[in-house]
């Protein structure tokens, strides 16, 4: 059986749910979970539940991985060789995209980023093109398949395995190209938009920045993140960091609630892979109603508070 490595992302010594979906993408393979920044004993049980045959704590013989993404990439390359991995998958998050880009350069390998499906055995990956208008399945002709998977694109399914803890210390040198001096985090109590399982988004109809409090109250009931359309951002109602769409963030939640969003093709490109789309709009002819699973024709200032009360 071929060995597939999964780069595990953690937060406060807990495995992110998005990494569990990536593990499911490699179901049927011998999964080697690579952990860079957490206590392996703290995440062993969860990783074993979702298919990890072994949990490898990757370290550098000299140097701090958290201060050097280049050194982290070098360690991952060493781990690929050490464990004879035929594929290495990760999440298409900010961290995943950064590390896998450096890793592809270090190993001189092709990289397929932001996939919605992966076939490790066939070395193929499916991803969207032309702002989501079509999907292509790409065949990778290389000894090792490198791919990052869009957060929440693949539903995590439990597949219990051994989860043996192993320590690997890579004897590699830090290229020293980049040094992280400081990390400034945003609001720690807010769910990351790209990784959120549920998103509530406000469009131009939100009318003012202070009205996003209404969406935040609703989102808080279901552990959701709050997003914005480009029209709302351009109007100054929300920062660009909240924007979903072709010129914003691409998301793939289990549930997407669009509040006062018209459904322009540019916005749809950023959220079309959502599992269930709910639209609330007072315009019965809004394009979003042709693209949603459930639609409510009504004023968001009437519907959203009622929804929040029911939740």
Task: Describe the protein's architecture and organization.
This protein is α/β, with parallel strands linked by helices and 311 residues long. It folds into two domains: 3-170, Rossmann fold, CATH 3.40.50.620; 193-310, TPP-binding domain (Rossmann fold, 3-Layer(aba) Sandwich), CATH 3.40.50.1220. It has eight helices and 17 strands. The chain has helices spanning 17-25, 40-49, 69-82, 94-107, 212-221, 230-234, 265-268, 300-310; strands at 3-8, 10-11, 14-15, 30-35, 52-60, 87-91, 111-115, 117-119, 124-129, 134-139, 145-149, 164-170, 198-202, 225-228, 255-259, 276-281, 294-297. A hairpin with a 2-residue loop joins strand 2 and strand 3. The longest helix has 14 residues, at 69-82. It is elongated. The model has no long low-confidence stretch (mean pLDDT 94).
């Amino acid at each position: 059986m071929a060995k597939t490595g999964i780069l595990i992302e953690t937060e406060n010594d807990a495995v992110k749910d998005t990494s569990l979906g990536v593990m499911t993408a490699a179901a049927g393979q011998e999964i080697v979970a690579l952990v860079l920044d957490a206590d392996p004993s703290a995440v062993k049980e969860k990783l074993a539940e979702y298919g990890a045959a072994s949990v490898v704590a990757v370290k550098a013989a000299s140097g701090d991985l958290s201060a050097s993404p280049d050194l982290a990439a070098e360690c991952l390359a060493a781990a690929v060789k050490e464990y004879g991995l035929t594929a290495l998958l990760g999440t298409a998050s900010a961290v995943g995209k950064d590390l896998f880009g450096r890793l592809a350069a270090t190993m001189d390998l092709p990289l397929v980023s932001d996939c919605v499906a992966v076939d490790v055995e066939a070395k193929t990956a499916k991803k969207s093109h032309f702002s989501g208008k079509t999907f292509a399945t790409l065949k990778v002709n290389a000894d090792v398949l490198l791919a990052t998977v869009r957060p929440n694109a693949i539903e995590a399914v439990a597949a219990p395995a051994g989860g043996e803890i192993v320590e690997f210390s890579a004897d590699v040198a830090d290229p020293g190209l980049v040094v992280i001096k400081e990390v400034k985090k945003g609001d720690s109590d807010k769910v990351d938009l790209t990784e959120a399982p549920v998103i509530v988004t406000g469009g131009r109809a939100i009318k003012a920045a202070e009205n996003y409090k209404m969406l935040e109250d609703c989102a808080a009931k279901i552990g959701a993140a709050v997003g914005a359309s480009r029209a709302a951002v351009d109007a100054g109602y929300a920062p660009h960091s909240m924007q979903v769409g072709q010129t914003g963030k691409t998301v793939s939640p289990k549930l997407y609630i669009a509040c006062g969003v018209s459904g322009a093709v540019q916005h749809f490109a950023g959220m079309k892979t959502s599992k269930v789309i709910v639209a609330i709009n007072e315009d019965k002819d809004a394009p979003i109603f042709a693209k949603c699973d459930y639609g409510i024709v009504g004023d968001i200032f009437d519907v959203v508070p009622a929804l929040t009360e029911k939740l």
